[in-house]
Amino acid sequence: MTTTNSTEGLSVPGIMPNKIDRRSMVIAGLFIVLGTAAIVEPGVASVAATILVAWLLIFGGVTHLIGAFSGQGWGRAIWQVLLGILYIAGGIYFRMHYLLALGTLTLLLAWILIAEAIIGFIAYARAPREERSSWMLVNCVATLLLGALIRLHWPSSSVWAIGTLVGVKLLITGFTRLMLGMAVRRLASQREVQIKESLP
């Protein structure tokens, strides 16, 4: 009776990693599906990204306008109103002129990818040796190359590049998460075997 209870107690810590592992696999699959769709239809993905940014700007502007009535002083309220109007105006412009906005988004995307790659390299260098993954480094290198490629070909490739390159980035991120998830599952399996072998 005591042996059974101790076995169950030792197996409980493996439940949470399994749940996290499955969730990571699902997210990785979603990234892969979205990346494939963006590569197949880059124009649709580019327009969708522009419209999404437009609505995000509009919602951000509304949030600033609501924040203006939080009662934190006239100076802050005026600043919030101005920011809200600016965000909403930018969102409406992006929504009405999404083809022209693609050029701006493409350039912005290039710098975001470059910054993400630099941050990734720093995180990889500072991570403990046992937590480093070659797939993480591959993701950083690929992200840096994609950002540089977008920047060098801007603005001539704005219409199709944003959809295609975002799709590639989503695919790489999906496969990276998939490999990391498989590594977590493998470590959890090894730990469970070690626990079972240590039992009397």
What does the model show?
The chain has 200 residues and is mainly alpha-helical. The protein has one domain (20-198). Helix content is 87%, strand content 0%. The protein is built from 7 helices and no strands. The protein has helices at residues 2-11, 15-40, 42-67, 74-96, 98-126, 134-152, 158-198. Helix 3 (42-67) packs antiparallel against helix 4 (74-96) and helix 5 packs antiparallel against helix 6 (134-152). The radius of gyration is 23 Å and the shape is globular. It starts with a helix and ends with a helix. Residues 1-15 have low confidence and may be disordered.
Please write out the topology:
Elements: H1 2-11, H2 15-40, H3 42-67, H4 74-96, H5 98-126, H6 134-152, H7 158-198
Helix pairs in contact: 2-3, 2-7, 3-4, 3-5, 3-7, 4-5, 5-6, 5-7, 6-7
